[in-house]
Specification:
- The protein is mainly α.
- It has two domains: 80 residues, Serine Threonine Protein Phosphatase 5, Tetratricopeptide repeat, CATH 1.25.40; 104 residues.
- Helices cover 80% and strands 0% of the residues.
- Helix 5 runs antiparallel to helix 6, helix 5 runs parallel beside helix 8 and helix 8 runs antiparallel to helix 9.
- It starts with a helix and ends with a helix.
């Protein structure tokens, strides 16, 4: 019941309708209070939307706590370097960027890009190998791992967040206290190119 509520809440947040979003989040939080045995990822979904709502209202301290809790809960189920955990890292990075803590924000964006590159690269290699030598690749790769629709949406969204924020910092004047290194920006572009190449190729 909670996941559909969180989808609705995020849709309303994207529309700027905070009142309706807050209603869905409050209902989900009430269910959570009465069901302490909920899966960590379900709790993480609630923290995620609470963080987005707090960020939209400029309650940055609350947003920081919510996104940190999201990372902790998602890590509990998937581990700290999983693509699901990367969503929380990305929003923490956006939060630090908003508060002009560019060093910490870029560190988090680097982590997000590394997680997604490690996930996307084997998929791209498998697709490429199959298109060149189908028989050999079928022997070499016993189990296919394709990118699912939800992963695709997450990847596009958070990698673009990383790119936009890093590009802004990379464009700072040279005498600025912090500029995103060109290599970090290149790694983000590489991860995006892997994603778009995978989506372009027929499976």
């Amino acid at each position: 019941m909670i996941p559909p509520m969180m989808v609705a809440a995020e849709c309303y947040l994207n529309q700027g309708n905070f009142r309706l979003a807050e209603g869905f989040i409050a209902r989900a939080s009430s269910i959570e209070m009465h069901k302490p045995d909920l899966r960590p990822t379900t709790k993480a979904q609630i923290r995620h939307n609470e963080g987005l709502l707090a960020m939209a209202k400029n309650d940055l301290q609350d947003a920081l706590i919510d996104f940190a809790d999201e990372v902790y809960l998602t890590s509990e189920e998937y581990g700290p370097i999983h693509r699901k955990t990367a969503i929380g890292f990305c929003h923490l990075g956006r939060l630090f960027h908003q508060t002009h803590d560019y060093l910490n924000s870029n560190s988090l964006f680097r982590q997000v890009v590394e997680i997604w590159t490690d996930f996307l690269l084997p998929i791209h290699e498998e697709i490429t190998a199959e298109s060149i030598v189908p028989k050999i690749s079928r022997m070499k790769f016993k189990q296919k791992v394709w990118i699912e629709e939800t992963d695709r949406f997450d990847a596009e969204q958070i990698l673009m967040h990383c790119y936009i924020n890093q590009m802004e910092c990379h464009s700072f004047p040279e005498d600025n206290k912090f500029r995103v290194p060109a290599m970090d920006l290149a790694h983000t572009c590489y991860a995006l190119s892997l994603l778009f190449l995978i989506l372009k190729k027929p499976h």
